Amino acid sequence: xxxxxxxxxxxxAHWKTRTMLSAVEVGVFTELAGTPLTGPDLRDRLGLHPGPxxxxxxxxVALGLLVRADGRYANSPEAAEYLxxxxxxxxxxxxxxxQCPGMADDLTGVLRTGRAVNEAEDGRDFYRTxxxxxxxxxxxxxxxxxxxxxxxxxxxxxxxxxxxxSLADIGCAEGALPGHVLAHHPHLTAIGFDLPPARxxxxxxxxxxxxxxxxxxxxxxxxxxPLPSADVLVxxxxxxxxxxxxxxxxLRAAHEALPDGGAVLIYETLIDDERSSNAVGLxxxxxxxxxxxxxxxxxxxxxxxxxxxxxxxxVCVEHxxxxxxxxxxxx
Length: 331
Description:
Layout: H1 5-26, H2 28-31, E1 37-38, H3 39-46, H4 50-62, E2 66-69, E3 72-75, H5 77-82, H6 93-99, H7 105-113, H8 123-130, H9 134-158, E4 166-170, H10 176-184, E5 189-194, H11 199-208, E6 215-219, E7 232-236, H12 244-257, E8 263-268, H13 279-291, H14 300-309, E9 315-321, E10 324-330
Parallel strand pairs: 4-5, 4-7, 5-6, 7-8
Antiparallel strand pairs: 1-3, 2-3, 8-10, 9-10
Helix pairs in contact: 4-13, 9-10
């Protein structure tokens, strides 16, 4: 199976650049030129909002621009040499900003205010707006397929589907996950659960995969309607759209909907537990701060704790593809 990682690495490259440019713009490297600082001290000196600041600083660690020791941040040798504005002989920040005008504007604003760029009051408003027009729905669904292709193919191979007969993908978009799983496992049937405007794109995509006879679309809002009944419930790039309370609410709803022995399967761009190596996970969390009020990404350890709190017994984390991992809880 061919991994999409070389392509997705390039898709994430501009976000890594945007993160660096925002750090240059708000003065992270110049502020750290004197002495290492704790996250709260650095945040306060730069005038950043507490919400996205920790993900921002740890993303810079994962990108190799900062180092973190004993709870304090310092410049990496390269950042100290080339990104400190008080070293004009070697400073590269000015030229980067000139060559990429406007790239960091939205992210920098979110870092300073903590407010998402869009006008929605919460994530549900964001999705109602996104799903209001056919063109925006299809664009969003295709974006989700691009984000899910690698993990969907890996899950088709790595998860023990032979133990189960059915799955329901909660917030299914085009249905990339159930479509590719069913293509590999002829004994399975599936449900795609999403808001009504997602139906057309879902039927088109799963039809192209040749699994339309084993998959059905079910309209619903997972905060208002009961979740579908299936042996496995999948939450792919869903939990990170919401705050902690909403995350737990969805996990409890999954626990209630599953039969004994059933599984909830969560796949996300998990932040590594040390918050120092998976730059994409940390950057995606910054994107959530930008796009969806209350949303944030999380570590595998955090997700395991939430699963236990929601009532799941056996829980585990497994790497999938590139920056993606899955977390599984058994009822």
